[in-house]
Amino acid sequence: MNLRARAVIVGGGVMGTSIAYHLARAGVRDVVLVERDELGAGSTSRAAGGVRAQFSDELNIQLGARSLEAFGRFEEEIGQDIGLHRVGYLFLLSTPEQVASFEAGVRLQNSLGVPSRMLTPAEALRLSPLIRTDGLLAAGYSPDDGHCTPEAVVQGYATAARARGARILRHTEVTGIERDGTTVTAVTTTRGRITTGTVICAAGAWSRAVGALAGVDLPVRPLRRQIAVTEPVHGLPPALPMTIDFTTSLYFHAEGPGLLLGMSDPDERPGFATDTHDRWIPRLCEAMRRRAPALLELRRTGGWAGLYENTPDHNALIGEASSVSRFLYATGFSGHGFLQGPAVGEIVRDLYLGRVPFLDVSPLSAGRFAADAPRPEANLV
């Protein structure tokens, strides 16, 4: 294989396929997406599928809200049913500090058009009757949030990108990025060489290695996160929100007739392992006992592990490298990449075309760490 491309996208998850679709739809010819496995086989297929705009950072609020609009019209625009359930996100708050932080967040979200609001514990219980309210002070809620099926989003974007001329190479690994000085000239792969002047890194947890091929530092570290699925639950409310105990990060939402649930594990260490283990279960059970004891009665019927792509401030890296011309990146989303995929695809398209994006994402440049200008996100799950 010896191809020529206007742009080579590395990574076939939601971010890569969204970028491919938005470039192809804008009329960019000879877009090539390279994925070393199946599409979505990395972090996207292992995500919990949550979509929201309830963030503390103004940029994340806007990225989330823009993406929610795109998810809402996805089937009409792309032609793919993504199983979107607009059931809301419900953050359960147990300390005065959490309440004050979410009150400030709601004010900011409302100013940007997001219909979030604060709820009393009794109101939260009516929405999510599996919880207990002992020690609960308040909750943050937005009805526009929800969850959908990550694999369906990837396949929808990929199909629509191909229909508009993009080429997708599966089971093809990037082995090198050639440069002439500071200019990208080609990408080498296990199937041959692709002559190109632009590389777009959307490789998720593997982005640091891709950046290193071009001499670009992308400070991304992989961290395993686990998800469990339960047996059917009788009497689940049809609009059960994605429910998060903010103190412990325990979360759950309906998954078919049962529940999908997960929680962060502070004992987990960075690495690429995605096998499952039970070391997190005692801490998970303690969190359920405290906030949702009804979950303790449910039998686990399955589960999986995937990778977060964490940055030092738990916020995304979006932009173009300052040291290498036409090396663009969209990575390091630290758990909120899937839900921002549609909006980021738009932004990377505009950065490639030299247009002004709908949102100035320059504060999310990878160079912010060298400049000692981190941009932390507080509303993490």
UniProtKB/TrEMBL annotation:
Segments forming domain FAD dependent oxidoreductase: 7-351
One Gene Ontology term, aspect cellular component: cytoplasm
Molecular function GO terms recorded: oxidoreductase activity
Pfam families, per database record: DAO (PF01266)
InterPro entries: FAD-dep_OxRdtase, FAD/NAD-bd_sf
Record key words, sorted: Oxidoreductase
PANTHER family per record: FAD-DEPENDENT OXIDOREDUCTASE DOMAIN-CONTAINING PROTEIN 1, SARCOSINE DEHYDROGENASE-RELATED
Stated name of the protein: Sarcosine oxidase subunit beta
Species of provenance: Streptomyces collinus (strain DSM 40733 / Tue 365)
